[in-house]
């Protein structure tokens, strides 16, 4: 559970840092969003470490593959924001959100 908390805390900090500013400067927004994408990719290393250290005999396990999928969807959503004009409607897959099984 300690690793789960670390991962969720890191994700929260990254999100707060990415949105702690408010600016009409599109270049600054894109730079911040690009940094979020980069840091979300880096989270995979921490997720891999937590998964390696997980207790394989635990009755309830953390679903690391579900977390990876959700982070990939978030990254894809940010990338779609860069690639698709905002006037076009978009559909997104829902996030899993619950990582225990």
The share of residues in extended strands comes to: under 5%
Order of helices and strands: HHH
| Annotation, overall tally of beta strands | 0
Number of helices: 3
In terms of structural class, how would the helical and strand content be classed? mainly alpha
Spatial separation of the terminal alpha carbons: 13 Å
Overall 3D shape: elongated
Round the Cα radius of gyration to an integer and report it: 16 Å
Relative helix content: 55-70%
How confident overall, as mean pLDDT? 80
Biggest sheet features:
none
- Low-confidence spans: none
Comma- or semicolon-separated keywords:
single chain; 101 residues; mainly alpha; 3 helices; 65% helix; elongated
Explain what the structure shows.
- This protein has 101 residues and is mainly α.
- The chain has helices spanning 2-19, 26-53, 64-83.
- The protein is elongated, with a radius of gyration of 16 Å.
- The two termini are 13 Å apart.
Summarize the structure.
By secondary structure, this protein is mostly helical. The protein has helices spanning 2-19, 26-53, 64-83.
Topology:
Layout: H1 2-19, H2 26-53, H3 64-83
Helix pairs in contact: 1-2, 2-3
């Amino acid at each position: 559970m300690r690793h789960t908390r670390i991962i969720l805390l890191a994700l929260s900090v990254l999100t707060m840092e990415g949105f702690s500013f408010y600016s009409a400067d599109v270049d600054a927004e894109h730079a911040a969003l690009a940094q979020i994408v980069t840091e979300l990719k880096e989270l995979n290393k921490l997720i891999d470490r937590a998964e390696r250290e997980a207790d394989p005999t635990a009755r309830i396990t953390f679903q690391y593959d579900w977390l990876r999928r959700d982070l990939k969807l978030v990254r894809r959503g940010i990338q779609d924001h860069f690639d698709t004009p905002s006037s076009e409607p978009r559909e997104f897959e829902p996030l899993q959100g619950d990582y225990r099984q």
